[in-house]
């Protein structure tokens, strides 16, 4: 795969940072590089966990990723292109972007995929289910006020004008039709996408997103 896998002892010693919304820890004692940004472990960005087969499994909180690395359960595949340092009680550690399990684990396929805004927008290609304009909202086809469920089969990406015009009406009352039937996506990648709030550095190499 051409990816670097590093020793955990080395991992413990490395320090780094990442710019952006993360807040530095003002009283940090260690002295990483001048570019390093220190954050609390809870505020550190999530880490993509790969199976031993390099299949993407989930996005871990940084704390869990660090525990797995120190415990020898996983190795670093990609560092952050910019550096993030977190402080634990005794030491500074560098947060990677992608890690990989040393041992393959079997994951069940059958679990239902939770619906999130990001996953729904991806299913509908960010297009309004009524007029095909760019969607910025989510509409309940049968309004919640009239008993509609909050789920894959009753939610659709919608442009703001359509959402506003539709309000709490039924499609039959408006004479509208959906451009396509609403189905729940299946498959592990979908499950993962539905969990992700953002895509970290290098993650796309492991997220093979098929069209809905
Ligand atoms: Zn529309």
Automatic annotation (TrEMBL):
CDD domains, per database record: HNHc (cd00085)
Q: Which SMART domains match?
A: HNHc (SM00507)
Drop me one GO molecular function for this one: endonuclease activity
Keyword Nuclease found: yes
Q: Which domain of life is it from?
A: Bacteria
> What keywords tag this UniProt record?
Endonuclease, Hydrolase, Nuclease
Spell out the Pfam families in the cross-references.
HNH
The chain positions of domain HNH nuclease read 115-164
- Provide the coiled-coil residue spans: none
Basic and acidic residues composition-biased segments? 20-34
Q: Where is this region: Disordered?
A: 1-34
- The name under which this protein is listed is HNH endonuclease
| Species of the source | Dietzia aurantiaca
């Amino acid at each position: 795969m051409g990816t670097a896998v590093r020793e955990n002892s080395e991992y413990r010693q490395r320090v780094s940072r990442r710019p952006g919304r993360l807040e530095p820890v003002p009283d940090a004692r260690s002295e990483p590089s001048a570019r390093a940004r220190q954050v609390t472990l809870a505020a550190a960005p999530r880490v993509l966990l790969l199976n031993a087969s390099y299949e993407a499994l989930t996005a871990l909180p940084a704390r869990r990723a660090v525990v797995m690395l120190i415990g020898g359960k996983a190795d670093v595949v990609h560092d952050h292109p910019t550096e993030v340092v977190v402080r634990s009680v005794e030491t500074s550690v560098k947060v990677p972007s992608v890690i990989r399990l040393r041992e393959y684990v079997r994951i069940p396929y059958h679990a239902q995929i939770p619906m999130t805004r990001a996953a729904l927008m991806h299913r509908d290609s960010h297009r309004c289910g009524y007029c095909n304009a760019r969607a910025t909202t989510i509409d309940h086809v049968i309004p919640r006020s009239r008993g509609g469920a909050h789920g894959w089969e009753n939610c659709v990406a919608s442009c703001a004008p359509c959402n506003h015009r539709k309000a709490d009406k039924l499609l039959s009352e408006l004479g509208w039709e959906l451009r396509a039937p609403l189905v729940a996506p299946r498959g592990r990648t979908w499950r993962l996408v539905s969990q992700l709030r953002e895509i970290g550095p290098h993650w796309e190499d492991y997220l093979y997103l098929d069209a809905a």
